[in-house]
């Protein structure tokens, strides 16, 4: 927040801040951060997803409203992010995300990375729609089974650690969606 206050013209570039705002429970601020980031990086599916999960948790937020405001797919070529986008938009499935992540097994590290991303975003999706057990299972796979040492791999690890140490599940809204 301080950096954004000091150099406001750079605020749109701080997508990591948006992720931190989600974990801090500042969902409306997260929505604003990801809307701002969209102006400088309009092809990033991850931006659309984090915007979605923040929007679901805002006051009067819902899966349906978040889907209505979801950024269109704009050509992100990273595997399996097209299928992740479809899932959050309501036109995809867990099976399609996993199939895309498993399509190319020729490079073990790249394959593991694809599975880390697939399970991270499946975990976040299921958390957003209120399916806590599925969310925990997928996040554990992203954080442990397909652990990666990069920013989003670390996000999966932190998310898994936070959720597995909480006495109670994160409060869920009635989202009535899958």
Shape: globular
Distance between the termini: 34 Å
| Count of runs of 4 or more consecutive helical residues | 10
Biggest sheet details:
none
Mean pLDDT: 93
Q: Helix content range of the residues, please?
A: 55-70%
Strand content: under 5%
Specify the structural class: mainly alpha
Low-confidence segments, given as residue ranges, are 167-178
What integer value in Å does the Rg equal?
A: 15 Å
H/E topology pattern: HHHHHHHHHH
Give a quick precis of the structure.
With 178 residues, this protein is mostly helical. The protein contains ten helices and no strands. Residues 167-178 have low confidence and may be disordered.
Describe the structure.
It is a single chain. The protein has 178 residues and is an all-alpha fold. The chain is 63% helix and 0% strand. It contains 10 helices and no strands. It has helices at residues 2-6, 15-23, 27-38, 45-57, 63-68, 81-89, 94-101, 108-128, 132-145, 151-165. The chain is globular, with a radius of gyration of 15 Å.
Keywords:
single chain, 178 residues, mainly alpha, 10 helices, 0% strand, globular, disordered C terminus
Topology:
Elements: H1 2-6, H2 15-23, H3 27-38, H4 45-57, H5 63-68, H6 81-89, H7 94-101, H8 108-128, H9 132-145, H10 151-165
Helix pairs in contact: 2-3, 2-4, 3-4, 4-6, 4-8, 6-7, 6-8, 7-8, 8-9, 9-10
């Amino acid at each position: 927040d301080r950096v954004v206050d000091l150099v406001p013209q750079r605020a749109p570039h701080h997508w990591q801040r948006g992720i931190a705002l989600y974990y801090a429970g500042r969902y409306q601020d997260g929505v604003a951060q990801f809307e701002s980031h969209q102006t400088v990086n309009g092809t990033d599916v991850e931006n659309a997803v984090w915007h979605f999960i923040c929007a679901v948790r805002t006051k009067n937020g819902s899966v349906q409203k978040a889907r209505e405001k979801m950024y269109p797919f704009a050509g992100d070529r990273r595997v399996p992010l097209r299928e992740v986008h479809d899932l959050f938009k309501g036109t995809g499935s867990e099976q399609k995300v996993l199939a895309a992540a498993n399509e190319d097994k020729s490079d073990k590290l790249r394959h593991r990375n694809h599975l880390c991303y697939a399970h991270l975003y499946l975990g976040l999706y299921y958390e957003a729609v209120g399916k806590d057990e599925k969310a925990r299972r997928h996040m554990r796979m992203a954080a442990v089974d397909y652990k990666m040492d990069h920013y989003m791999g670390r996000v999966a690890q932190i998310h898994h650690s936070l959720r597995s140490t909480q006495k109670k599940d994160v409060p869920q809204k009635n989202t009535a969606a899958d």
